[in-house]
Specification:
This protein has 216 residues and is α/β, with parallel strands linked by helices. Helices cover 35% and strands 19% of the residues. It has a six-stranded parallel sheet with strand order 6-5-2-7-8-9. Helix 3 packs across helix 4 and helix 4 packs parallel to helix 6 (108-117). The chain starts with a strand and ends with a strand.
């Protein structure tokens, strides 16, 4: 398996640092039932994409901004079924301060609540749906993450679980490790490497500003 050299690491949140699959599925399906929308159609596109963009696609007759705000505010207060991803805390501890951040398609409130609920640090660099005009798969979220960390996009490595996020990171000029927590490996074929669990990643600092990321 490969070793990546980078200056910083950007993590997606859901499916990477926290396991929220059950919570996301529950929230969307309850909303779909209330609004008369096909829940299966939603779940086919929901992972890794901003809530407002999912609603625009599946329910263009609704006010997407109002609906998205209501969904995410409710979801932020309901963490049933949300758990920390195995190995997440250990992996973050291996990375020097100021060398990692989170880029998520969820709102700032939702992301902050999930990180705290799972006992993970709330990163100083946290790019959310509130901070971008264009969500994943557009490169804007990851470009903002790199800019906030203070590194060139090409010097950042991304860890993602969804095709939309991988496409976003690649479009931003970054290398990507895909984790098969949400999608099968064949759906993550655009990633530079694929893993089944975070424990397969080891991060070492060379003391000169570079991180060596070993994938086992």
């Amino acid at each position: 398996m490969p070793t990546f050299s980078c200056a910083a690491i950007l993590f997606d949140l859901d499916g990477v640092l926290v396991d929220s699959t059950r919570a996301v599925d529950r929230e969307w399906r309850e909303w779909a039932q209330r609004k008369g929308v096909d829940g299966d159609a939603i779940m086919a596109i929901a992972h890794g994409v901003r809530t407002v963009e999912v609603i625009r696609r599946v329910a263009p007759h609704l006010n997407a901004d109002l609906e998205a705000s209501a969904i995410e505010n409710h979801e932020a207060g309901d963490q049933r079924g949300v758990t920390v991803m195995p190995g997440a805390a250990d992996l973050l501890c291996q990375i020097p301060q100021g060398r990692w951040g989170v880029v998520t398609s969820g709102s700032r409130l939702l992301a902050t609540n999930r990180l705290r609920y799972c006992g993970l640090p709330v990163s100083k660099v946290l790019v959310t749906s509130d901070d971008v005009i264009h969500g994943k798969p557009h490169p804007e979220p990851y470009l903002k993450g790199a800019a906030q960390l203070g590194f060139n996009p090409a010097d950042c490595l991304v860890i993602e679980d969804a095709p939309a996020g991988i496409e976003s990171a690649r479009a931003a000029g970054m290398k990507v490790i895909g984790i098969t927590s949400t999608y099968a490996a064949e759906r993550l074929e655009q990633a530079d490497a694929a893993i089944g669990k975070l424990a397969q990643i080891q991060v070492k600092s060379d003391g000169a500003g570079k991180l060596d990321v070993e994938v086992n």
